[in-house]
Every structure is written in C-alpha cells, then in structure tokens.
Known about the structure:
By secondary structure, this protein is α/β, with parallel strands linked by helices. Helices cover 28% and strands 30% of the residues. The longest helix has 18 residues, at 111-128.
Amino acid sequence: MSSSRLLCVFGTGSDVGKSWITAGLCRIFKQAGVDVAPYKAQNMSNNAGVTPAGLEMGRAQIVQAHACDLVPHVDMNPLLLKPNTDTGAQVVVLGRVLGEMSARQYFTGEMEARRALVHAALDRLMAAHQLVVAEGAGSCAEVNLRHRDLVNMSVAHHGDGQVLLVADIHKGGVFGQVVGTLACMPPRDRARVAGVIINRFRGDPSLFDDGRRWLEDRTGLPVLGLVPWTRSIRIELEDGLSPETRVDPPPPEDRSRLHVAVLRLPHISNFTDFDALDRHGVVVHYLARPRRLDRYDAVILPGSKNTRGDLRWLRREGWEPLLRGYDGMILGICGGFQMLGERIADPLGVEGDPGESRGLGLLPATTVLAGEKTTRAVQGRLEGVPAGGEVPVEGGLPVEGYEIHMGQTTVRCAPLVRLDPDGRPDGARHGRVLGTYLHGLFDAQGVVEALFGPLRPDLRFPRLPDHHAWRREQLDALADHLRGCLDLDRLSEIVGLPVR
C-alpha cells in the first residue's frame, strides 16, 4: 500500500471555492517541502488548457499543478466533460477526445470502466507523490448521484482520504449548507469528513465566533478557518465567470480607460483569456443583450464549444447588424475567429447536425470542422496590428499560448501571428478585423498595448511582470492568505504532514 496521503477538498455545492482552496493548499504544502500534486477525477468545464505533451485538461488543475511547481499531466484530470448543448458534452479521456455524448448516454453506460480509469490515475499520482490534494465537484452529498459518483466520496474511499468540507457563506444559509450536507451522507461517507472551511466571509470575523461554536457543537467537526473574501488575489477560475461579474452592465462613460465588449456566448469557452485585460486597466463588459457598440474601443468574439450554434444565437438575438455597423476593432478568438469568416462547414457533425453555416463575412476565411482535435502549446510572434490603416509592429512581439479547436481555417489575408519554429501562419489581419486560434494571447508582455494602444493613443498601458512570474506571485499570495486564517496545526494533524 502506498504511503502517500490523500486530502480531499469537497464542497456543499457548486461554486463554493473548491478550486481556489485546493490551489492554496497545494501551494502551502509545496512551500512546506511536501511533494504534493493536485487531482480532480472528472471536471465539467469549457475552460480547458493544453499540457506540454499536447493533451487537454481542465485549467483549474493546470493552475493547481503550477501551485505544486509541477508540469501539468492528464492524470491530474483524467476525465473532462465540455458541455456543448444543454444536455450533451464532448468527452475528453486522458487528454484526448473520446466523442460526443448526451448526459443520459454518459451516466447510464460504462461507469465502472470510468471509475476504474480515474482510480488508476489517482493511484499513479499517489505512487509518485507524498500527498495528493483532490478537488471534488458540486456537492459531495447528491443522494441521486451517489451510485454514479466518480469524483467525490468514491475518490475519498479509494484513496483512504480525509475530507475537508468547504461552504460559501457569501451565498447565505451556511449553517444549512454544512449541517444539511452532512445529514445527507451515509455514515461511511460522514466518517471521512475531518473538518470544515467557511469560505468568502466579509466583515468582522469575531462576529462569527458563536456561529463557529454552534457548528462545532452540532457536527462534532472542527471549523478549520473562516476565509475572508479578497479581490486582490487573481487565480484563474474553474468554470464560469466570477461571481462578481455583471453581464450587460450600463454602457461605459469614462473615457480615461479603454473599454472592451466581450460577447457572452451561450457556450463561451476559455473566458480566462481576458483576465490579462483587467490587469492592464482595461474595462471588460460581457454583453448578452444587443446594444449599440460605439462606446466600446474594441469588441471580442470569444471561444465557443458550439460555434455554429452560438453563431445562430448571435443572429437570432440581433447582433449581426450591430457587428457589421461597428467601426472599431473586432477580434475573434478560436470559435469567434471561425464565426468572423465567410463559412463554417461541419460535414461530420462534430458539433451537432452535419451541415454548413454562413459566417459573419468580416474576414476572408472559411472553416471546415474536422474529427481530429488540434491541441498544442505554441510560441510565435505577433506580426502586426491595425492602427487606422495597417501599421505593422516593427519586428513583431514574442507570444505564447495554446490551441484547442476542431476546425481548420483557410485565410486569404495576412496572418496575425507567425508560429515557431517554421513560421506557420495563425489567424488573420484584415483592416480593423482580427482573428486567432491562440488562447492566452494577452498574457504575453506588450501584446495588450500592441493590439489596443493604436485605438487609444491617449492612454498608457502598464508594463507588467512576466505572466509566469505574476502567476507565482498570485499563488504565493493565496497561500499567505490561507495561512492567515486556517488552523495549520489542526490541518497538519489531519494530513499527517507539515504545513509550516
């Protein structure tokens, strides 16, 4: 039997901060000298990334791998479900696409084989590391899903793990969250819960002292900490926009900052592409309801997990004439890039029914969706940006990112990026309209200024640290934040490993 330890970070529900807490705990143990690795058996998210081996996994586990100073590996997220309809998803197994399945198909077939697969990945991680910190999914006490559970208590029992239960006090009803979750567990599951973490607290923590005592008396479990809400630490989210993000806010009035509109597609993917814009002082508005765009300096069509479906949505909602009439910069990323072209063909039914869709016609490009998925980390140089006309950025700028797409696009204009090592073109530059397949483009130093600076020569953009250094700073800050509010001695006792 492996001497490795398993610590499980499970939640009372979805979006209670499990990914955030897991990343912070990984960083704390790593800084204490523990050989630690992250794990999530099954992730449902359209926010994915690519490992150096060219395999796809959830971005949350990529961030957690960086917290452990490890190279991301698909054993850390062996199953990834990427929703492309309300009832179906693309299934990614150990980094490679298995196919499309409806929820009913997925959950009524081959579940034991999938359980064996995720357990084998956990076994490999536990054989290689002192500690594995496993993130759960949703609520760990969904009684109707217990017999199909792959990611919560099934993992804890298989790896003989201790469970920390995370609740979100910002949502309200935190006492019901904790007590109700424990009440829904059978004794075997309940016995594995070793402590509770209350997340996203605002205000004076001493005002919760009586609440802490009540929870401990009622459950018999220690409350390991009351984690304060913070806006100063930026860790990429697992799925969906930040709880504080407003969709369709009032149109911008302040001309002292650059404003970008990102269309909030129904199947938006890789929304973390835009995190770097905020760090540069750019105001990002997510828009779902059509409005005039003349108050925005640029408009972005983001990635999509259902490109043709989201293109139909754009037309149905009335966005097409607004985009055609807009005279500012339009940038499409991945699926958004495909939409800007003249035609998207899906002869194999990769994203739904086979067929062909007319694009927005803003780029001279055509896309054919293919059965084989492109997943690769890339580097290259930004070739140029439009500034009134087309003024190239002299010498280009080094960029890096990753590609995740099912289609191949043929472009009849200048590329936006030349990729290393052979100068392969990526994307398109056609007057004020740009497109690219590169996720993470804005993370490279100087790219935000190069792309958007010509739109607002009156503004100055900050020169930020290298993205990798910035990410380390944020992870260190998260670890410090958790150290300041968690009972580290009790945590060390639960895990049996040092945390100082």
